[in-house]
Amino acid sequence: MTYTDFQYLKLLFPTILRQSFRDFEVIVLDNGQNVSVQEYVTSLQAECHERIMYVSNTKGDEGYPGGNVSAVRYAKGEYVMILNPDTLLEKQTIEFLVQEFSKQSKEVMVLVPKILIRRTDIINSMGMRRVRPSENIYTNIGYLERDVGQYDAPQRVDAFDGSALMFRRQLLQHTYLFDPRFFFGNETVDLAERMSKLGFYARTCPRAVVRHFLRGTVASSKQNDRYAAIIVRNALIHTLRNTDRGMFFRTLIIGMCVRNIFGRLITGQNRRMAIPYLKGVLMFIKQLGEFANPPFLSKQSS
Q1: By three-state DSSP, how is residue 24 classified?
Q2: In this structure, are residues 100 and 154 in contact, taking their beta carbons and an 8 Å threshold?
Q3: pLDDT in tens, 30-66
Q4: Can you spell out the DSSP letters for 67-130?
Q5: 3-state SS assignment for residue 208
Q6: C-alpha distances in angstroms, 218 versus 2, 74, 101?
Q7: Has this prediction a pTM greater than 0.85?
Q8: Rounded distance between C-alpha atoms, residue 262 and residue 257, angstroms
Q9: Are strands 128-132 and 135-140 parallel, antiparallel or unpaired?
Q10: Which of 40, 74, 152, 250 gets the most CB atoms within 10 Å of its CB?
């Protein structure tokens, strides 16, 4: 899925096309209906024939979850890989992920590559875990650590970052992929929690390496505050949906209000960040009714 990422797609595609694993298709879902993206993908189609598909999202910008949901509907393979446009693949990334899936039990529905920041040895994510067992707030495992092999043993993880992951298509027979209404943030955590309730889980595949540019997705501080508030809202939505009431109220009262709103205001530590947390909590209260029902009336199978 892409929005305004033409400059990154031109870096990503060569790394896709030189993969050691060759039996795959590429679907580019353009949330921004960008003429430059369409022309670029069309030029690649002439070289790779039917392996590359361009889809213009006529619904407009549906954000990360909506765009990827629309793209996955076109996928035909047994395994589906979701990639942010601002990523690069090492030569054997897809091969290692497919090999790892062949070794795993059917309960493993998602594999997480080693995601490094740009062309450095600094980790972006090795999956996700809860910050505290008592609250339903997640963080990237290994974030900003230097990669010295400390996460090279594959492990089960609580959740996963959305910039790069591979899942079994069979998962969509059991639950939907993402809730498009989330628009930005926590959609993968929501999926991971739904998977866990169904007896499925995610594991890391450290041999598969993806490099992430971590580009800025919004231009102004006002926009950043809005997206931060949406992330807070989404965190409360998936916590209410997927956990018990005790976990929800601890997350709302202690995690969001005490630590991140009142705590920041009282201590003065990054006080400005209290504002989007407050806006996110208010947004959650105001919009809760909009999220009362599942995003799809039936299971998303294609």
Answers
A1: coil
A2: yes
A3: 987 788 888 998 888 877 766 899 998 877 788 899 9
A4: HHHHHHTT--SSEEEEE-TTEEE-TTHHHHHHHHHHHS-TTEEEEEEEEEETTSSBEEES-EEE
A5: strand
A6: 14, 28, 35
A7: yes
A8: 6
A9: antiparallel
A10: 250
